[in-house]
Design brief:
By secondary structure, the chain is mainly β. It has a single domain, classed as Porin. The chain contains 2 helices and 12 strands. The longest helix has 14 residues. The protein is elongated and about 65 Å long. The two termini are 26 Å apart.
């Protein structure tokens, strides 16, 4: 994947002449995922044996729990900057839809202005559940030196979102806030991170187009520096 080549190329560049202060790190995370309900652009048409008439609505998804990890390099060039590759995976679990318009398979019709539940849509062959994988390259600034073992940080990220039923991968952007607390001779730490991620609006395999998808990932982390 291009983003991995990009990350490891940068990492190799900065780690080629590793100074005493530079350290690699690896961390795992338990994530709680909160998804802002995405809107579907108005659509009329037929595909996969289904007819869409004036469909214009919002899809509601349940919150989910997922796992992730990150590897990277801290104190780059003896600074407070840190660079990491982050992978996280979660499920978009569809709950219901609302809005306007109808979808029919010729025998059954789902009316979004009345009710569009998961079971009603599955009855006409539509499943809005999606597995999502995020591959992010994150840059951080660690506020080292203010507290002995407590380090707040801010960051930004750029990456790729792979969505199960989307036609293509989509770009993703993030703003990050968090902190870490060293618990073992400045090598092992625990921490918390909030990632506010925007995924470019995808087009799914039913040719439905979505507005940008906003995701908040709240993470409890455990890491090790070496």
């Amino acid at each position: 994947m291009k983003i991995l080549v990009f990350f490891f190329s940068i990492l190799f560049f900065f780690s080629y002449d590793v100074t005493a202060s530079q350290k690699f790190y690896i961390q795992g995370s338990l994530n709680q995922i909160f998804v802002d309900n995405p809107d579907i652009d108005r659509y009329n048409g037929s595909t996969s044996g289904l007819t869409f008439t004036g469909l214009d609505g919002t899809l509601e998804f349940d919150n989910d729990t997922g796992l992730g990890f990150e590897i990277g390099l801290k104190n780059i060039s003896e600074s407070n900057f840190r660079l990491g590759y982050q992978y996280s995976k979660f499920d978009l679990k569809f709950d219901k839809g609302s809005g306007a318009g109808t979808i029919t398979d010729g025998s059954n019709t789902v009316n979004f202005s009345v009710s569009a539940t998961k079971s009603q849509l599955e009855a006409i062959g539509i499943d809005f559940d999606n597995d999502v994988s995020l591959h992010m390259v994150n840059g951080y600034y660690d506020f080292n030196g203010y507290w002995e073992t407590f380090v707040p940080f801010v960051g930004v990220g750029l990456g790729i979102a792979s969505i199960e039923n989307a036609q293509d991968n989509e770009s993703a952007y993030s703003f990050i806030l968090g902190f870490k607390k060293y618990i073992s001779e400045n090598n092992i730490y625990i921490g918390y991170q909030s990632s506010f991620i925007t995924i470019d609006g995808p087009e799914d395999k039913l040719e439905l187009e979505y507005d940008d998808i906003n995701v908040h990932i709240a993470s409890i982390q455990v890491g090790f520096e070496f």
